[in-house]
UniProtKB/TrEMBL annotation:
<keyword id="KW-0479">Metal-binding</keyword>
<dbReference type="InterPro" id="IPR005000">
    <property type="entry name" value="Aldolase/citrate-lyase_domain"/>
</dbReference>
<dbReference type="GO" id="GO:0046872">
    <property type="term" value="F:metal ion binding"/>
</dbReference>
<feature type="domain" description="HpcH/HpaI aldolase/citrate lyase">
    <location>
        <begin position="19"/>
        <end position="242"/>
    </location>
</feature>
<dbReference type="GO" id="GO:0005737">
    <property type="term" value="C:cytoplasm"/>
</dbReference>
<dbReference type="InterPro" id="IPR015813">
    <property type="entry name" value="Pyrv/PenolPyrv_kinase-like_dom"/>
</dbReference>
<dbReference type="Pfam" id="PF03328">
    <property type="entry name" value="HpcH_HpaI"/>
</dbReference>
<keyword id="KW-0456">Lyase</keyword>
<dbReference type="InterPro" id="IPR050251">
    <property type="entry name" value="HpcH-HpaI_aldolase"/>
</dbReference>
<comment type="similarity">
    <text>Belongs to the HpcH/HpaI aldolase family.</text>
</comment>
<dbReference type="InterPro" id="IPR040442">
    <property type="entry name" value="Pyrv_kinase-like_dom_sf"/>
</dbReference>
<dbReference type="GO" id="GO:0008672">
    <property type="term" value="F:2-dehydro-3-deoxyglucarate aldolase activity"/>
</dbReference>
<protein>
    <submittedName>
        <fullName>2-dehydro-3-deoxyglucarate aldolase</fullName>
        <ecNumber>4.1.2.20</ecNumber>
    </submittedName>
</protein>
């Protein structure tokens, strides 16, 4: 049964800064550790992982029961997958490659039931297995979250149209894909990419839409800087980078001590 005591939507509406992270390893222990770490939300990443819908459903349940908002980054903007992860109890979705208002509208419609949307009705974990469908029906209208990813140069010309689609609760920038689409892959200090990031952030501020950024490396000073810049939906790294960096730093410290 979905945990309705956790409201990411309200935090976003109130303009609060929220910090989350990304899970690509489909292990329940990883999900529990991340969900208990103090994040406001944790994204189960189905786009860049090999996890199945069954595994994603288990991770959603664990994160939710830990009192953290479970989100799912989809493999694509497809209504069937959106329906299934929402039925599993996801509090919302992160939609990749949203480049137009039509892309955003499709995602919102797939999250909502008629008459606001097109999502089919089923009785699964989110609906209390049939016990509290009416409560869930109200919840999905007022508390489900849709975050669009701005991660391609094509989206830069459509920012206002995308971000003003009713039901879009915020956006998050995908810096790697954006840089690749601009022909400057991974060059995060390139003036053109910095200008693009500034343009996207300015649009979010002007339109009053929560602005998000994925800080892929576990860099605490960069996290603080992003808050100062005005980002308020911030993904702090990803499980594999947190693990890798932590291990390498520990080994490096050990090697320096035995030289």
């Amino acid at each position: 049964m979905l945990n309705k005591n956790v409201s990411l939507k309200k935090k976003l509406k109130d303009g609060k800064v929220t910090i989350g992270s990304w899970i690509t390893l489909g292990h329940p222990g990883i999900a529990e550790i991340m969900a208990l770490a103090g994040f406001d939300w944790v994204v189960v990443d189905m786009e860049h992982s090999v996890m199945s819908i069954d595994t994603a459903g288990d991770l959603i349940r664990i994160i939710d029961l830990c009192g953290t908002a479970p989100m799912v980054r989809l493999t694509s903007n497809h209504p069937d997958q959106i329906k299934r992860v929402m039925d599993a109890g996801a509090h919302g979705i992160v939609v990749p490659m949203v480049n137009s208002a039509d892309d955003a509208m499709r995602a919102v419609a797939a999250v909502r039931y008629a008459p606001e949307g097109s999502r089919g009705v089923g009785l699964a974990r989110a609906q209390g297995y049939g016990v509290d469908f009416k409560e869930y029906f109200e919840w999905q209208k007022h508390s489900s979250v849709v975050i669009v990813q701005i991660e391609h140069r094509d989206a830069l010309d459509n920012l206002d149209a995308i971000l003003t689609v009713p039901g879009v609760d915020g956006f998050i920038i995908g810096p790697y894909d954006l840089s690749c689409s601009m022909g400057i892959p991974g060059q995060f200090e390139h003036p053109d990419l910095i200008a693009a990031l500034d343009k996207i952030l300015a649009a979010g501020k002007r339109l009053g839409v929560p602005s998000g950024l994925h800080i892929v490396e576990p860099d605490a000073p960069r996290l603080a800087q992003s808050i100062q810049q005005g980002y308020c939906f911030i993904a702090y790294s990803v499980d594999i980078r947190l693990l890798d960096v932590g291990v390498r730093q520990g080994i490096q410290c050990f090697k320096e001590q035995i030289k």
